[in-house]
TrEMBL record:
SMART domains: AAA. InterPro entries: AAA+_ATPase, ABC_transporter-like_ATP-bd, ABC_transporter-like_CS, P-loop_NTPase. PANTHER family: ABC TRANSPORTER ATP-BINDING PROTEIN, HEMIN IMPORT ATP-BINDING PROTEIN HMUV. GO terms for molecular function: ATP binding; ATP hydrolysis activity. This is ABC transporter ATP-binding protein.
Length: 291
């Protein structure tokens, strides 16, 4: 973080928290050989405080884009810049960030947790504190109130001593969110936070994310499959098809019959209630593709 760094040519440092420019990314096949590009020439600039939904069909590259935004996958080409609050919000090339410094800015809530027999909710959430602990701090216990605050934010205080593998699916999602919150990031990356939840729990989870995001002044990028939810809970929808951004804008402009046809390959109608363009009232009525 002390080395000189180039300034990006397009992003505005004052408001942008994260930006990717002409990013190509993919995975190796059989160990070493690079496989095909999964992301192809992605440009995305994310302003501070925005709630952004990534939508698209299975396998189009949404999780891969989250990995790139979170620094878990380095792009093959293009640049990722992250705003540094210690430099007045200056955009600093992601390659110049240490893993711990970047983790104080960006937290990724993965789709699933690896099996962790016997690990309690509190121990799990304490792992979120690692970017804030010095090398010696790794040997010491976790201090401060951030773990308790994160548990309280997701209403899991009463479950703190329960093993994670004895939680319900909804409680486990909240534990994963608490883990990300304990990191005290400025940007939350959420990969399908409503996966495996019933309808009521999906809505509870999205309201919870919305509340903590607003209370903590966070920016959020969230992968969602439900377009009604994306329209209701986010400010901006970015649609990805075959590794490219094909639509990007406010929900009322993006969630259209064209989105259903061009991105999801289904016919359908988008209904808005009589409150006009209110994004919270968008509903997609999709025809059964097998009819
Ligand atoms: N670790 C990996 N190694 C190799 N290929 C991968 C890896 N992860 C994902 N892929 C491939 O990259 C492509 C995009 O996957 P990705 O998980 O980003 O899609 P997605 O849009 O998040 O899909 P879904 O909605 O099903 O979660 C897919 O073809 C997938 O098989």
């Amino acid at each position: 973080m002390t080395a000189p760094h180039p300034q990006p040519t397009t992003a505005t440092a004052a408001t942008t928290v994260l930006t990717v420019q002409d990013v190509h990314a993919g995975y190796p096949v059989r160990g070493r050989r690079p496989g095909p590009d999964v992301l192809r020439s992605i440009d995305l600039t994310i302003p501070s405080g925005q709630a952004l939904a990534l939508v698209g069909t299975n396998g189009c590259g949404k999780s891969t884009l989250l990995q790139v935004l979170g620094g878990g996958l380095a792009p093959r080409a293009g640049r990722v810049y992250l705003a540094d609050p210690d430099r007045g919000g200056e955009l600093v090339d992601r390659t110049r960030w240490s893993a711990r410094a970047a983790a104080r800015q960006v937290a990724l809530m993965h789709q699933t947790l690896p099996p962790m027999p016997g690990v309690t909710v509190r121990r799990l959430v304490e792992q979120g504190r690692y970017p804030h602990r010095g090398p010696l701090g790794m040997l010491a216990g976790v201090t401060g109130t951030e773990v308790d605050d994160a548990l309280a934010a997701v209403d899991l205080v009463a479950f703190a001593d329960r093993p994670v593998d004895r939680l319900s699916g909804g409680e486990r999602q909240r534990a994963r969110l608490a883990l990300a919150l304990a990191q005290q990031p400025r940007v939350l990356l959420l990969d399908e936070p409503t996966a495996h939840l019933d309808l009521a729990h999906q809505l509870r989870m999205l309201h919870l994310i919305d509340r903590v995001r607003r209370e903590r002044g966070l920016t959020a990028v969230v992968v969602l499959h439900d377009l009604d939810h994306a329209a209701r809970f986010t400010d901006r929808i970015v649609a990805v098809r075959d590794g490219r951004v094909v639509m990007d804008g406010p929900p009322a402009e993006v969630v259209t019959a064209e989105l259903l046809a061009d991105v999801f390959g289904v016919r359908g109608r988008v209904v808005r209630d009589d409150r006009g363009s209110s994004a919270s009232r968008i509903r997609c009525l999709v025809d059964d593709p097998t009819d």
